């Protein structure tokens, strides 16, 4: 049985950053990363650009095997955690190995949710989460003439862009009235629809898949409305399922994700969580919160690494405090999500711009303070909005000005 000072489950952005941060602060402590991936760290964010032919395969890789070795980080690939024993501080791996740890970081992220409908296992029904996924899509796209996209949010936009770049006849199917309408409202959804249609994408709204049909490979998609769409490839983007099954029986608190405090500590001693899987206490918004993006994973990995060296509950720990920002280019447009864009009865929403203008903003206010925003084709507004959220600037007297596209947000700072 291996024994290690720092064990990290997950070799993505959060896990790798945490390991490197630990090594910077603790030159002698032993570090093991276990990852299901067969590869060292690569950029999930760049996978669409790889599929569009904008970057070569080698540009995806952010680390080499040699770099792990030079930093004395033991990267164990092609293996996953099967069970975590918090009483004896042991983790059982899928290859039968058992590792005894002093400190543990859970950074195992998630997998693409799969559709459970007839024909979903056919060749041509694809997901975009890993490099293996991307290589499968790359091969299929080169042989296809028509494609369908299932799902109306970020991964769906990636698929639409990839398929149209390859000159495939592309149809997008969404359960809502428009792309993103369920996340950022009807009006921004309409604008996204318009941009997609201008770029040759056919849209079918308020519908969903009933069946994938084909003999050995996908040939067509049948919708609940009985519409049929000819397609040799389907790109599915219906969300992420967090990798938490191996934590069953561990006693580690799990809600939507692994629950932590503002220091990314779980309530189980000497165990931390970071990245997509962490449901952390957000000191800016005063509530438990999850962020699922690359930059957040990197930032949380750094904080988790520092705090693991400082020790669970120890002095010198640092709070994780950041305003999440996700930027999504698609065709000639760009979409940004900033801060907390969830809604409840206490959230006030103010919109600016219009579909006709080709640019829109949607502000989310709680008690006269901006807590989040969705922007389309308003890139210059992102930075001042982040600062307004971070500084919790009260703008009760100016909130109606937010609907004016000419209003300078910097004046509120």
From TrEMBL:
GO terms for molecular function: oxidoreductase activity. The keyword Flavoprotein applies. Keywords: FAD, Flavoprotein. The keyword Flavoprotein applies. Residues 5-301 form the FAD/NAD(P)-binding domain. Its cofactor is FAD. The lineage of its organism: Bacteria, Candidatus Woykeibacteriota. This is FAD/NAD(P)-binding domain-containing protein. InterPro entries: FAD-bd_OxRdtase, FAD/NAD-bd_sf, FAD/NAD-binding_dom, FAD/NAD-linked_Rdtase_dimer_sf, Reductase_C. Residues 334-413 form the Reductase C-terminal domain. It comes from Candidatus Woykebacteria bacterium GWB1_45_5.
